[in-house]
Amino acid sequence: MAVLVVATGNPGKLKEMQAHLVGLDWELTLKPDQLEVEETGATFAENACLKASQVAQATGEWAIADDSGLEVMALDGAPGVFSARYGKTDAERIERLLNELGNELNRDARFVCVIAIARPDGTIALQAEGTCDGRVLHAPRGSGGFGYDPIFYVPEQQRTFAELSPDQKYAISHRGKAFEALLPQLRTL
Ligand code: ITT
Predict the structure, then answer these.
(1) 179 lines ligand 1 (CB under 6 A)
(2) Which atom, in ligand 1's list, is nearest to the CA of 169?
(3) pLDDT at residue 86, as a whole number
(4) CATH code for residues 2-187
(5) In whole angstroms, what is the distance from residue 57 CA to residue 64 CA?
(6) Among the listed residues 100, 141, 16, the one whose alpha carbon sits nearest the alpha carbon of residue 66
(7) Maximum Cα–Cα distance for the chain, whole Å?
(8) What is the distance between the alpha carbons of residues 76 and 19, in angstroms, rounded to a whole number?
(9) What is the pLDDT averaged over residues 144-153?
(10) Annotation says 133 is catalytic
């Protein structure tokens, strides 16, 4: 069974990635803690490929990386690729975003996720993207998930991501959709 290194340092994301990869013919291992990749790309796709490629080369194994974030329309797509760098903690990031949005009426937003898989030599074997549309609430709601989940409201569900069960979130999230597109290809590798 080939090894697949999950190239993330974000525990919330890791949990979701592992759940999506259950039952596949890959032995999942974690990225070594000290191995950090600088996200110098301008797009989610560039950063996902950078992370997968550098972790694959450093470990000599196949690697999978996720680059994701929240794009808020009234903020011209911010925080976007800077979602993780918007503050030091999830609470600070949420507070900053709510402050910047203020009483803006247009609260439309979308989560974007790009997943990339690199071969042991660092070349990219697969890439897939998923998005999920929603709205930014004025205050957090719910305690599940991670990151911006408590302020991301999905009208079809009448709930925030943080109010959904893990299975409900996987079924509709940006990450769930990216994995849905990726898994058939991953099975053929
Ligand atoms: P790695 O690069 O180590 O994977 P990271 O947290 O730095 O971890 P990103 O650069 O891809 O990852 O930043 C993604 C940020 O976007 C993440 O820190 C969250 O704040 C947010 N985010 C992504 N997916 C999310 C989700 O499903 N729910 C809530 N917030 C999410």
Answers:
(1) no
(2) 27
(3) 97
(4) 3.90.950.10
(5) 12
(6) 16
(7) 53
(8) 32
(9) 98
(10) no
Contacts of 185 (CB under 8 A, 6+ apart): 126, 128
Q: According to the model, what pLDDT value does residue 81 have?
A: 98
pLDDT in tens, 21-53: 998 989 999 999 999 999 999 999 999 999 999
Decide whether any atom of ligand 1 lies within 6 Å of the 13 Cβ. Answer: yes
C-alpha distances out from residue 24 to 19, 59, 91, Å: 11, 21, 35
**How far is ligand 1, taken at its centre, from the CA of residue 10, in Å?**
7
Res. 133: pLDDT tops 90: yes
Question: Does residue 160 have its Cβ closer than 6 Å to ligand 1?
Answer: no
Rounded distance, CA 66 to CA 117, Å? 9
Q: Tokens at residue 174, please?
A: 């940006």
